[in-house]
Amino acid sequence: MLRQILCLLPLLLVSVVAVQHRSVLAEGFGHLRAAEWPWLLAAAGATCLTWVAAAFTRQGAVVDRLPKRRLLATQFAAGSANHLLPTGLGASAVNLRFMTVCGIPLARSSAALALYLLAETVARLSLLAGLLLAFPGALQFGTLLPDGAVGPLLLAVAGVLVVAVGVLVLVRRLRTAAVSFLRTALGELRSVHTRPSRALALWGGSLAFPALQAAGLVLVGLSLGLPIPPVHIAVAYLAATVAVALVPTPGGLGSVEAALVVALVAAGGPVAVATAVVLAYRIITVWLPLLPGALTLGALVRLKVI
């Protein structure tokens, strides 16, 4: 009975989220009808390749060989789970369960998950920094933040870091657990990088994942005639996703759309066209795969893959 409930739960959550965002869905599909379909098909292809890139990165984060087909199916299902729970918790839970079912101990599975998140973050920030160095005029940051907001933002980040370090230092049990986890994670990191194939999969997939996501937005922009150079669209995407990474909304719903529109306007795009591009992009990357992903997730639970 519990397994049957877990199989149906993703479908229920998809229905709830779809009803809550029905106006966004209707407007997004309206923009899709006015777009050039070859570009949209290419954007859908880039979206599919993101699951392949995620599978490569997940495999690169562990020394053990994971079953390829089940790994790819899990990444597709994890994408759906990620849009139903806050701040990546859905995808993390699905992948953690998948690795433990594959026989990897929980400590090492958690370390591999942390390594994946670290590699993806480093790759995304490095890609953004490289593009900003090559194209310094791609974004006008003054339009993204209100006057005087940079200082308080940096102070808030520093304050969170100080509190986190203080808690670790003062709470002995938590400190012991953190030290143990760090030791396991460093051991997994060394093991992965002693095998060139794993290191290549980890870092190659980590770079390909945000690059493919940005390429999808570029292709949707081309389909709707967004008057911004493709590289500037990619920079706007990376900057927006980095900015909303700490916002705890399911799959970034709402926060990502707002940040992308602001970033595209900062890159020189008209507000109306930028909004249409973002809505169409989110339809392709979030809403169209959501139901098939939920069905796949239910099937994986039923088959005891996760």
Automatic annotation (TrEMBL):
Recorded superkingdom: Bacteria
Q: How does it sit in the membrane?
A: Multi-pass membrane protein
Q: Which residues form a coiled coil?
A: none
Localization per Swiss-Prot or TrEMBL: Cell membrane
Keywords of this entry: Cell membrane, Membrane, Transmembrane, Transmembrane helix
Q: Which residues cross the membrane?
A: 36-57, 149-171, 200-222, 228-247, 259-281, 287-305
Fetch the InterPro entries from UniProt. L-PG_synthase/AglD
- Matching PANTHER family: UPF0104 MEMBRANE PROTEIN MJ1595
Please state what the protein is called.
Lysylphosphatidylglycerol synthase domain-containing protein
Query: Lineage of the source organism?
Result: Bacteria, Bacillati, Actinomycetota, Actinomycetes, Kitasatosporales
